[in-house]
C-alpha cells in the first residue's frame, strides 16, 4: 500500500480590505429626514451624515441672510437675497436626501425619529419668519411714528411765521398726515392723525384766537380747502370748523377798516355776503355800513369837511358795489349809498367854506360852483355863489378873502362901472356885499400894456370921445374889492381896484384889461 501526500496550493491570494463601508440599503425615511433637517437652514441633516463641510456651508449661507436681514427694516429683506437663500435650502435638501438615501446616520438610530425631528425643527425658520415679520412691522410703525413726529415739528415751527411764509410747510405737513391716514390705516401713527389734525387746525388759525382778524382770513380760507383732499371720516367735525371763524374774521376785519376809514373793506364784506349770506355776521353788514355813513355825515361839520366829503363819495361808490342780493340786503345798501352820495354832494358847501377860510381860493371857487350846479334847491346855494365870486376876487386881491361874504345886497352909494376894454368883461366885487355882472365890449377901446398901467398919470375911462359901456350898482359904505376880467382872456390879465366908499359920494369904477404888449 502506498501513500501520496498532497500539499497546499502556493497561488492562493487574500482579497484587499474595502476603503469605505459598503452602502447601506436604500432607506426613503432616512432621505426624508436628512432633507427636512437641512431645510431648517443649519445643515443638521449633513451633521447626521458627518458631512461637516457641507454643514458649514449651510451655516455660512444662513449667517449671510441674518447679516442682510438684521436689524429688521420696514422694507424687509431684498427679494433677490430671499430667492437665492430659498434656492440654496432646496438644493441642500435635495442633495441631503440624495446622500442620505444610502448613507447610515450617526444618530439617531431610527430614520422616522430623525424625520420627526426634522419636522419639529422646521419651526425654527418658520418661527424666524414670524418673528422677523413682527420686527419688520414694528420697524414700520416706528418709521411712521417718526414721519408723524416730523410733520408735528413742521407745524410747530410754522406757527412762528406769517401764514404766507408758512403755507408751503403747512401743506407738506398736511400731505404727511393724509399719507399716514390713507396709506397706513390701522397703524399707530394713523390712529393719532385725527388728534394731530385738531392741533394743526388750531395752529394754522392761531391769528383768529389772537383776535388778529385780518391776518386770520387767509389761513381760515386755506383750512376750508382741506376737506377736498381728506375724507370726512378723518376730519370729522373739523370739516366745518373754519366756517364760523372765517365769517367772523371777514366781518371784523372789514368793519375795522370801515370804521377807521383806512384800507379797502369791500372785498371782505363782499365775500362774507356771498359765501355766508345767511350767517349772523352777514346780517351785521348793513348796520355797520349805515353807522359809517352817519359818522362821515357828522364829520361834515368838523374840522375837515373836505375830507369827509371825499370819504362819503368813496363810501357811496363802495357800498353800491357790494353784492347784497344773496343776503337780501340790496335795497338797504342802495339806500345807504344814496344817502352817502347825497350828503357828499350837499356837504361840498361846508368844504368850500373851509377852503375859503384856509385861503385856498382856487379850490373854493371850483367847489362852490360845483355845489351850486349840483344842488339847485339847496338853501345854501345863493351864499355858495357869493362865496365863489369872493374867492375869485381874492385870487387877484388876497385882502378880499379875509371875510366870508354874506348874501346881503344893495346899498345907498351909487357906483358906476365903465368898460374901457375891447372885450366883453365880467365884473366881480366883494366887500359888505358881493356880486358880479357883465359889460359889453367897448368897440373903440384897446387893452392897456402892463407897463403903461403902472406909469404915473395912467387914467383909463378918461377919453371923452368914447362911449364906454357902463352899469350903475348900489353898494353900502365900506371897502369893496373889484376885479374885471376879459371873457376872452387870451394873454390878458384881470385888473383890480379897491374902493373905499363913503356916504354922500358918487363913484365911478373903470374896468379895463392889461396885456404884456407895449
Q: Helical percent range?
A: 40-55%
Report the CATH C-level class of the domain at 408-515. Mainly Beta
User: What form results from the Cα inertia axes?
Assistant: rod-shaped
What is the annotated CATH architecture of the domain at 408-515?
A: Sandwich
What is the straight-line distance between the termini?
Answer: 205 Å
- Structural class category: alpha+beta
Sheet with most strands: 4 strands, antiparallel
Mean pLDDT: 84
Q: Give the uncertain stretches in residue-range form.
A: 1-8
Strand proportion: 5-15%
Element order, helices and strands? Answer: HHHHHHHHHHHHHHHHHHHEEEEEEEEEE
Find the CATH superfamily of the domain at 408-515.
Carboxypeptidase-like, regulatory domain
Radius of gyration: 55 Å
The neighbouring-strand order within the major sheet is 3-2-6-8
Query: How many β-strand runs?
Result: 10
The oligomerization state is single chain
Number of helices: 19
Find the CATH topology of the domain at 408-515: Immunoglobulin-like
Layout of secondary structure:
Blueprint: H1 28-39, H2 44-48, H3 52-69, H4 79-100, H5 111-121, H6 123-158, H7 163-183, H8 188-204, H9 206-209, H10 213-223, H11 232-235, H12 241-260, H13 266-275, H14 280-283, H15 285-299, H16 305-320, H17 330-357, H18 361-374, H19 381-396, E1 413-419, E2 425-430, E3 435-439, E4 448-449, E5 470-475, E6 478-486, E7 492-493, E8 495-501, E9 507-511, E10 514-515
Parallel strand pairs: 1-9, 4-10
Antiparallel strand pairs: 1-5, 2-3, 2-6, 6-8, 7-10
Helix pairs in contact: 1-4, 1-5, 3-4, 6-7, 6-8, 7-8, 10-12, 12-13, 12-15, 15-16, 15-17, 16-17, 17-18, 17-19, 18-19
